[in-house]
Amino acid sequence: MEMVPSEENQFVPKEGVFWSCRQSIFDEMKRISQIQNAAEEPRVLCIIQDITSAKTVNERLTLNLPASTTLSKLYEDVAHKAGYVNGTFDLAWGNTPEMAPLDHNSEMSLSDSGFEPGGKRNFLQLTDKDGEQPQIASDESGTADSSGLDDSSQERFIGPLPRDGTAGCSGDYSSPSYSYSSILSKSETGYVGLVNQAMTCYLNSLLQTLFMTPEFRNALYNWEFEESEEDPVTSIPYQLQRLFVLLQTSKKRAIETTDVTRSFGWDSSEAWQQHDIQELCRVMFDALEQKWKQTEQADLINQLYQGKLKDYVRCLECGYESWRIDTYLDIPLVIRPFGASQAYGSVEEALQAFIQPETLDGPNQYFCERCKKKCDARKGLRFLHFPYLLTLQLKRFDFDYTTMHRIKLNDRMTFPEELDMSPFIDVEDEVLTSSNVKSSTVLPPGACNSQVTSLWKSPQTESCTDSGAENEGSCHSDQMSNDFSTDDCVDEGICLDSTSSTERVLKPKSLLTFELFSVMVHSGSAAGGHYYACIKSFSDGQWYSFNDQHVSKITQDDIRKTYGGSSGSRGYYSSAFASSTNAYMLIYRLKDPSRNAKYLAVDDFPEHIKSLVQKEKESEEQEKRQREIERNTCKIKLFCMHPVKMMLESKLEVHKDKTLREATEMAYKLMELEGVVPLDCCRLVKYDEFHEYLERSYEGEEDTPMGLLLGGVKSSYMFDLLLETRRPEQVFQPYKPGEVMVKVHVVDLKSETIASPISVRAYLNQTITEFKQLIAQATGLSAETMRVVLERCYNDLRLLYVPNKTLKAEGFFRSNKVFVESSESTDHQVAFTDSLLWKLLDRHGNTIRLLVLLPEQSPGTLANRTLCQKVGGDSDVPFDGSKGNRKSVEAILEESTEKLKNLSLQQQQQGSSTSDSQKSSDASDFEHIESPTQEADSNSSLCVAADNRELENRIRATAGSSGGASSDPENHFACEERSDSEVNNDRSTSSVDSDILSSSHSSDTLCNADSGPIQLANGLDSHSITSSRRSKAHEGKKETWDTAEEDSGTDSEYDDNGKSKAEAQYLYFRAEPCSQDDSSWDAQKCLVVHVDKRITLAAFKQNLEPYVGVTSTQFKVFRVYANNQEFESVRLNETLSSFSDDNKITIRLGRALKKGEYRVKVYQLLVNEPEPCKFLVDTVFAKGMTVRQSKEELLPQLKEQCKLDLSIDRVRLRKKTWKNPGTVFLDYHVYEEDISISSNWEVFLEVLNEPEKMKSMSQLAVLTRRWSPATMKLGPFQEVILESSSVEELKEKLSEMSGIPLENLEFAKGRGTFPCDISVLEIHQDLDWNPKVSTLNVWPLYICDDGAVVFYRDSTEEPMELSEDERNELMKKESSRLLKTGHRVSYSPRKEKALKIYLDGGPAKDPGQD
Residues annotated as region Disordered (predicted)? Predict the structure, then answer.
């Protein structure tokens, strides 16, 4: 048979060539189809953040995968792209702190695991697995041997790193010269980091240093904790011991320090307070000494860290020396001497300066006891004893007396790796000191001089500061005999005075050589920063950077970079441009091979430490198991309609392998249904709480694991669970996916009621006819005559009338609300928007419930009101505070409600086809209604008119002939009792309320869910809706009270007769007495009002007239907010659309504003008083009124209410902006024409010492104040009137007023709010004196209006010289003064919480402390 080559170069039979080609074509078509299908498949965008190391924490891996990709394939792709071994890391959701890891082996697709396709970003975090870092794919063993790597090939790290999830410091600092490297895992460095709780970097650095100190660590391990004697939680040594064991044996990258800080007695707030690391070292050592009393470690701190020095004063005439011996734990080294422009260059230079004596001469001469006179002397410090561990503190924090701020000195200071301390001992002085000691003290047999130095350990002398000659020859035999110990001669430190001078001189240099092993670095400023430690291991001599949870190798070059400073010269300002990262504390260890300890190995641990290691290992394993359980636990919101407690909410935590039946039992117990509902009457269903939608039930899946039902373990779910209950005789209804839930409200047109909802489930593909049949089965109504109205939102009611249209086409969603009505009435025959059903539903959606507090009645008004009620036949009981009052209100309410209901039905029967003019005439009873009880009977009208006339007469009598004066009866009768604070609480009343009303004036506002139904007078249900519904009959029309003429921004919309403009439509209003359960107010004076919130404030006030007892023009409406603040509502054309259910309203008697009137608050300006702004009165200004007319009406009111008898020519009104005085108003200025005025306007009234000098708007009134540097005092304010904005004119007038020569006069503009207070310590240099400008209205002055504050001074006057004590005293006085006036004290230091370690478990709480 002939053979031919195929496409694969294989020989096939010739007759098979056709079939081979055909198969190839099919394979290619299949491949193309798969590519097309893959292209059409939704893709999932995954963004992965690798947080396992600092180098990768800012990098992102991006994968765009098909939605069908499995989780196991996702892990493979991430491992390949990240370069890790698959299975050595976890992936967790990045948008939750819990970060539940995804399952490594799951075959579930990304779309089923909660990933969102379609371009949405899905954030993941790549984290450690079981506390160990992921293995690099190229490293087959999964570990790296750092010892075999060359230092030059290793990336080095130094400096602060960003920390995950912590706020360790006030900021992250970095230096571009630093070599940041990747963070080495513990398998490479062998060390564990410490987690930063918030701002505990200073604590972490010190703990790591102590851990890396072999002598301290070994001594701590040798101490054994006795649990019977102390609580382990509060034992500081035990918690340190546990921490060190974990640092040495844990497999974690970093461990927590919360147990240690808890033993300090700290709460969580301490973690947010940063402290000084040297201060912490002192406090912690003190606490350890207290805890270790009467143990072998009692003197551990002193043996390791304590040195001794002599503080001496030597007479230069006779050589007599008085001295005392102090102990020290660290040596503070000055970076830059006080007043010097150059810093010390090295630690050696600073040490030499530390012991450099100073000469006391001149006025500072020393009184010599031997010479019996004042002599020149030498005062200084001398080291006697160096500790085994030498601690040097570089004093980088200082106080700048020029700026009065704390500063940090970043100057360069070098320090050697090996420090020779022998140059800092003066041998001759030591010999002299030894001879003086021997001649002035008597030592017991066998005692050495080191015993003398060991006596001085009192807290009062533990200081390195110059303290003078206080203890002259202060060694006494009786003290020494009591304090000597046989162990004193064996000291861990270096005793320099225990041998003869000859032996001391011949002492080998190596005994005074110290090696550096810890550098604690501070990065930042004096206001805050970050600490980390660079520590050398005594095991291998390698330097490491311990930066909170990150540990990495570093080199000597990195240590040298912590010297600070810059590469330039060390000038005065070099510190400002230097790196802010530099060494702060140095710890050296004495080089002595015979005494230098090594770290205890695990095998050499004491037995109690081995037990502790085993205990911590078991705890860590338990924690690991618990973490694994957490990773496999589904946490989802659980709801339950409890038969007794109503709707309950909780969180169900169930393992993913638990079945639905087991989860139901857990939910049953969680919701406390035992004994209330049987377990078999409960089930879990999928639930959407936001839409109140039951998505599906789980019939037949009782044995299915919850992990499968919920779609896996996720950080959050897009749905909830509902524990549904039933009665034993009921059967659970199955809920199938794809169904929608419908709440059906049955409407009864006869009784005008809307029933509570019935839940019905339907399918979106059902027709309206099928849906009606479903409702008919549930409600028993007739489907033939049924009308169904869908409420899509509160502004949209849709009648469902197309039989074959589906629910989906009509706009049904998961959860829906419909109203159904089935009756034989003729209401079916009219258009839906004209029907009674529409009106009921429209009213139902806009009715709110308000609580109205009625005012106290005055005697005259009460009498007239009683007369009115008797004439009208309402009640024979007077309206007062007695029990009869309630009956009177109920009688009025009953009649007014019936009247309103009749009027409403008349309006509805008329329909909407009549013209506006017909409406106005036919329905005049309720369109122009003044009171719900208004009748044709003239007696009622007569009563109201008489009541109004009587009240108006009283108001005129109160305010005189002034029409603009305040006429509030409460202000008249209780003016003196009303405090300024009460008055000030009403500030900005109208403006705030008007802003709220204006913002919600539109009808198209947000819809809120309704609350439970409340029966109204006509049977209508009211529920909580905060938005208005636009009536169809008036859509697109401008209502009469919204005309542009009336909405002019004034406070009132009354016409000249005090009546409101005509209403275009009656809106529902019903009032009833308030029960004790409705309000905390007095029920005798409270009304519950159900009202359509589309009603205007004017109509609302008119409806309240019969209950208040006066016309709407004679009372005011105040809205009460949550904090009981009251704001007056004054815009009568605004609706109540911003109100919601159970809002409170207070009614107060007083004349309401007429059109064009504004309520004004008047404050007195007192420029030279501590409080320059004092409230006087509330008054009324009118549009078109001149300033002089307003002053004429205001002065009688001030005389009556404030006892101020003022002359009209000696007062001025001026603009008030917050507390700043502004433009002076001239008498001829007209409000609204020359002066803009608004609701609740505020104005200053200023009393003048002479007639007004301001005559023109071109003039400028400036407030000036003289600063006298020689006396450090500010003069009083004096006003200067300028004819122009010329600087020259200002200086001439200031010179003329003060007598300062013009060429010596300097001025500066004040800063801030009037009176521009400033500290006398700052004013001389902080203000911009003598600006180089020719006019006042340019930068930097910008004085363009009256009221600017200008300080001036004599340039030849020198500032007062202050001593340090005087400056401090003045600083305190200024601080107190400025704090009282509410001004910021810029030089006040930041208040810091004192660092304390509490030995009794915690601080004592001060009940008076907030």
Answer: 131-170, 459-479, 902-942, 958-1058
Chain segment 1284-1313, per-residue pLDDT in tens = 999 999 999 999 999 999 999 999 999 888
Q: How far is CA 296 from CA 57, 94, 223, in A?
A: 46, 50, 8
- d(CA 99, CA 716) in angstroms, rounded, equals 10
DSSP state for residue 543 in the 8-state scheme: E
Give the span between the Cα atoms of 258 and 269, in whole angstroms: 12
CA nearest neighbour of 1319 among 1391, 1378, 1380: 1378
Over the stretch 622-669, which tens digit does the pLDDT of each residue have? Answer: 888 888 888 899 999 999 988 877 788 999 999 999 999 999 999 999
For residue 1022, give every residue at least 6 positions away whose Cβ sits within 8 Å of its Cβ, in sequence order, or none. 844, 847, 848, 849, 1013, 1014, 1016, 1090, 1141
**More confident site: 1028 or 848:** 848
Which residue in 731, 650, 633, 716 sits closest to 683, CA to CA?
731
Burial of 1363 (0-12, 13-18, 19+ CB in 10 A): exposed
Which of 275, 385, 530, 1023 is flagged as catalytic?
A: 530
Distance between CA 185 and CA 190 in Å, rounded?
8
What six digits make up the tokens of 973? 């009768």
201 among known catalytic residues: yes
**Is the model more confident about 1192 or about 142?**
1192
Tokens of 802: 């197309």
Residue with tokens 């500061």: 465
Q: Of 201, 281, 375, 682, which is the active-site residue?
A: 201
pLDDT range class, residue 857, cuts 50, 70, 90: low
CB-neighbour burial class of residue 1280 (10 A; exposed 0-12, middle 13-18, buried 19+): middle
**CA–CA separation, 1273 and 590 (whole Å):** 58
Using DSSP, state whether 1350 is helix, strand or coil: strand
pLDDT tens sequence across 725-770: 988 888 888 888 888 889 999 999 888 888 888 889 898 889 999 9
Please indicate whether residue 536 or residue 180 has the higher confidence score (pLDDT).
536
Q: Distance from CA of residue 12 to its chain's centroid?
A: 80
Give the list of residues 6+ apart from residue 127 with CB closer than 8 angstroms, or none.
51, 52, 89, 90, 91, 92, 99, 101
Q: How far is CA 7 from the centre of its chain?
A: 72
For residue 286, pLDDT over 90 is answered with yes
* Residue 799 to residue 789: CA distance in whole angstroms: 4
Contacts of 355 (CB under 8 A, 6+ apart): 380, 381, 382, 383, 424, 426
Side-chain-side CA neighbours of 1141 within 13 Å: the count stands at 16
CB 892 within 8 A of CB 901: no
Exposed/middle/buried for residue 730 (C-beta within 10 Å: 0-12, 13-18, 19+): exposed
In angstroms and rounded to an integer, the radius of gyration of the C-alpha atoms of the chain is: 44
* Residue 1297 structure tokens: 């007023």
CA dihedral (1124, 1125, 1131, 1136) in degrees, to 10, reads -30
Question: Cα-flanking dihedrals φ and ψ of residue 1054, to 5°?
Answer: -80, 150
**Cα separation, 1212 vs 1261, whole angstroms:** 12
Cα separation values, 434 from 466, 765, 917, Å: 21, 108, 120
540: Cα within 13 Å, side-chain hemisphere: 9
CB 1065 within 8 A of CB 1085: no
Work out the number of other CB atoms within 10 angstroms of the CB of residue 881: 12
User: What is the per-residue pLDDT for 1173?
Assistant: 92
Spatial CB neighbours of 1077, under 8 Å, sequence gap ≥ 6? none
Beta strands in 14-73 (DSSP E): 43-50, 60-66
- The answer on pLDDT for 935 being more than 50 is no
Supply the mean pLDDT for the chain.
74
